[in-house]
Amino acid sequence: MEQIEIFEIPSPCRGICEVNNRGYCKGCFRSREERFHWHALSDQQKRKVIELCAQRQKRVVAAKKRSAEAEPTDAQQQGNQEDLF
After folding, report:
1. pTM for the complete prediction?
2. How confident is the prediction for the chain on average, in pLDDT?
3. Strand pairing partners for 19?
4. In the chain, pLDDT over 70 holds for what percent of residues?
5. Which residue from 33, 38, 30, 36 is spatially nearest to 55, judged by alpha carbons?
6. How far apart are CA 43 and CA 9, in angstroms?
7. Residue 6 DSSP one-character state
8. I need a surface site. Which of 25, 30, 55, 60 has the fewest CB within 10 A?
9. Any long-range contacts for 54-62 (C-beta under 8 Å, 24+ apart)?
């Protein structure tokens, strides 16, 4: 049995509306279908989409963190370079 919602579940849209290389919005992490059909989804489906978006966002943040840790910063590169003068 589905729980009755008193308040409407708002769209997670952040107004960025750009698609990443995997087809998800860079702002809210919804797929094209999830964005286009948001108003037709039941509250239970909307909660599931929001849950999926949170998982997608965590993966993107973790990948960016790994990428940043793998690349040395300019300060680290300069510290290893010998002084020419």
Report:
1. 0.73
2. 86
3. 25
4. 78
5. 30
6. 7
7. S
8. 55
9. 54/29, 56/24, 56/29, 57/29, 60/20, 60/29
Query: What are the backbone dihedrals phi and psi of residue 25, each rounded to the nearest 5 degrees, phi first?
Result: -65, 135
Placement of tokens 């860079």 in the chain? 26
Residues 20-53: tens digit of each pLDDT = 999 999 999 999 999 999 999 999 999 999 999 9
pLDDT average, residue stretch 51-67 = 95
Q: What share of the chain is helix, strand, coil (3-state, %, to 5)?
A: 50, 0, 45
Do the beta carbons of residue 33 and residue 25 sit within 8 Å?
no
Token pair belonging to 32: 């094209």
